[in-house]
Amino acid sequence: MLRSRAALMAAAVRLVSERGTTALPITDLADAADVSRQLVYLQFGDRDALLVAAAADLVERELIPEVEDGGAPRRARMLAMARHFARHRPFYRAMLSGSCAFPMTRALNRLFGSLVTPAGVREVFGDLDEATAQDLAAVFTGGTGTIVNDWVIDADEPLDPEELTDRLMRLSTALTRGHPALAPTPGGHSR
C-alpha cells in the first residue's frame, strides 16, 4: 500500500513536470504508477488531492531537510529553497497555475509555516501575545510564498536562484532592521 502511494506520487510529479499541466487523466496517473484507477480514488479521493500530496511529499523529502537546519546561515537556507523550486520549476509552475493552485498554496504555506514559528517571531519582535505572533508568522510565510510563487510562474528562463535569494535577503533585512541578532552581516550572511 505504501509502495503504491509512493509510486503514485512519483508518477504525479513526473507527469505534471513532463506535460506542464495538472489536467491529467486519472488513468494516465494510474498507468504511470502501475496501479488501478480505483486505488487512486481509495488512497487520495481525486486527482487534485493526489497532486497536492505529491507536491507536499516532494517538499518534505527534498526541501524541508535542507532548510530546517537552524545552524546553517539564513542565506544558505534561502538559496537551498530557491534552488529546489528552480530545479522543479515545470512541476511547481503547473501546480501553482492549474486546478490545484489554491490547495497547493495552502499546503506550501502549512509546510513553510513549520519553519516560521510564533516563538521565532517573538524572538525577533519581543513579547507578543500568541495571536499576534501567529498572525505575524502567517504574514511572513504567506508573503514569502507569494514572492516564490510569482518567481516560479512568471520569471524569465532560466530561473536565477541567487537573484531570488538576494531579493528575499533584502526583504529579510528590511523586516529585521533594528534587530541586530537577526540582521545579515555585510557579506550577506546571517549571524
Number of separate structural domains: 1
**What percentage of the residues does DSSP assign to strands (E)?**
under 5%
By DSSP (H or I, 4+ residues per run), the number of helices equals 10
What's the story with the biggest beta sheet?
none
**How many strands in all?**
0
Q: What is the terminal-to-terminal distance? A: 45 Å
Full CATH superfamily name: Tetracycline Repressor, domain 2
Low-confidence stretches: 180-191
Order of helices and strands: HHHHHHHHHH
- Overall shape: globular
Structural class: mainly alpha
Helix content: over 70%
The CATH architecture would be: Orthogonal Bundle
Tell me the name of the CATH class: Mainly Alpha
CATH topology: Tetracycline Repressor, domain 2
Q: What is the radius of gyration?
A: 18 Å
Averaged pLDDT, please? 87
Short description:
With 191 residues, the chain is mainly alpha-helical. The protein has helices at residues 2-19, 26-33, 37-44, 47-67, 74-87, 89-97, 101-113, 118-125, 130-154, 161-176. It has a single domain (2-176), classed as Tetracycline Repressor, domain 2, CATH 1.10.357.10.
SSE order and pairing:
Blueprint: H1 2-19, H2 26-33, H3 37-44, H4 47-67, H5 74-87, H6 89-97, H7 101-113, H8 118-125, H9 130-154, H10 161-176
Helix pairs in contact: 1-2, 1-4, 1-6, 3-4, 4-5, 4-7, 5-10, 6-7, 7-9, 8-9
